[in-house]
From TrEMBL:
Pfam families registered for this protein in UniProt: Phage_GPL (PF05926)
InterPro entries: Phage_head_completion_GpL
Top-level division of the source organism's lineage: Bacteria
UniProt name for this protein: Head completion protein GPL
Length: 158
């Protein structure tokens, strides 16, 4: 008898992608993003990288006006926005941008994974994941609001 032990390997070498042509936003380490969001190797780098680029572009659109204001004040990159406010030497602005990207990517992956389920039972499992995708998207919105210094309110519909 032969035993097969399934596993999803995460690449050993980090995959670094530039998400912004002018370098204002930091490059993204896709391998580190996998670790932060709990993604395993089920999504290959070839499949995950376009999702990261798409979500980074969406965030850049949300932050366009905010970024223009920061550039007008002399910030040549995200790392120069409030650089004195940092954790472990990394500016809070970078941490918050990264949290927003992580949340949007994870939510996009969860929602896309739903497409793989063909049976009714599979759709029921996918329905159970939907709140998880919403939670990740909520984290992304929270991070963007904090980055832009906007007030936040959490409202639950009854």
């Amino acid at each position: 008898m032969v035993s097969v032990i399934p596993h999803s390997a995460v690449p050993a070498d980090p995959v670094i992608i530039a998400v912004d042509p002018d370098g204002w936003y930091p490059a993204v380490d896709v391998t580190a993003l996998r670790v932060r969001t709990g993604l395993d190797g089920t999504w290959t780098d070839a499949r995950l990288t376009p999702v990261v680029r798409e979500e980074a572009d969406a965030i850049a659109g949300v932050l366009a006006e905010w970024r223009a204001e920061r550039e007008a004040k002399g910030a040549a990159s995200l790392t120069e926005v409030d650089p004195h406010r940092s954790i472990e030497g990394t500016p809070l602005a970078v941490w918050r941008w990264q949290a927003a990207l992580d949340g949007r990517v994870r939510a996009a992956v969860i929602r896309a994974t739903r497409d793989f389920h063909a049976t009714g039972d599979g759709h029921d499992r996918a329905d159970a994941l939907e709140p998880t995708a919403d939670d990740w998207l909520g984290r992304a919105h929270e991070a963007l609001s904090r980055l832009m210094g906007r007030p936040r309110t959490v409202v639950e519909l009854i």
